[in-house]
Amino acid sequence: MPLSPEELELLRAHAAVHEAAHAVAALELGLPLDHVAMAGDGINPRTGAYTNFGQYEAWRLMEERPNDMAPMSLAGTSAENYFFNSSIRDGATVDMQIIGSAGGAPSDDPAEVMEWLQPWVDQTRAIVREKRDAIETVAVALMSTDRLSRAEIEELVERSNTEPVHLLGHLTPVWRVPEQPEAR
Predict the structure, then answer these.
(1) Which of 40, 38, 99 is nearest to 73 (CA)?
(2) pLDDT in tens, 40-54
(3) DSSP per residue, 171-182
């Protein structure tokens, strides 16, 4: 069954937030970001949305700079969870493959792997919270242009400090979270 326009819009918003978080984290961590893009529906992680490091391969950067690449790789899913309380794309699988490419995981035991990842998870969550306005501003721009260069992302991040653009103002009202009544 084909997706409704509203469902496609939500999936594009997830993709845009996911890639915007990678881009903002890459800038924050001093990584050689080239551009970020969404093609077509933005859903397929192989062809739909990606963060590009120019001449650098993400796998090689992970080997050379794991303490920067791991939080950048985790930022996409972390931002989806922060903004939407869920992650519905396959991008997390690709992101974890990048982290795994450097090796170093203590075992295949999920608890040990999570313990190994925890410092990067904590760092990533802090970046997403601190840069949430920048992530939203970049995501909204990405949804409307489908491609942003490093210079454009830097400009949007700078502008988000004084003129943030919020994602909910750009989504169909059906996807907006209802306001919660104030506690008495």
Answers:
(1) 99
(2) 654 554 446 788 887
(3) S-GGGSPPPPPP
- The candidate with the shortest Cα–Cα distance to 33, out of 65, 11, 4, is 65
| Model pTM score | 0.83
Q: Of 62, 92, 79, which is closest to residue 127 (Cα–Cα)?
A: 79
DSSP lists the bridge partners of residue 149 as 35
Determine contact, residues 167/140, Cβ cutoff 8 Å.
Answer: yes
In a 13 Å sphere around the CA of 178, the CA atoms on its Cβ side amount to 3
Look up the CATH number of domain 5-170. 1.20.58.760
Q: Three-class SS of residue 151?
A: helix
* Dihedral class, residue 89 (left if φ above 0, else alpha if ψ from -120 to 50, else beta): beta
How far apart, in whole angstroms, are the C-alpha atoms of residue 161 and residue 77?
23
Is residue 24 a contact partner of residue 131, using CB atoms and an 8 Å limit? yes
86 secondary structure, DSSP code: S
Q: What torsion do the CA atoms of 178, 145, 73, 129 make, to the nearest 10 degrees?
A: -40
Rounded CA separation 145/86 (Å): 24
CA distance 40 to 48: 6
**Which residue in the block uniquely carries the two structure tokens 């963060």?**
51
Q: Where exactly are the structural domains of the chain? A: 5-170
pLDDT tens-digit profile of 149-175?
Answer: 999 999 999 999 988 888 766 665 444
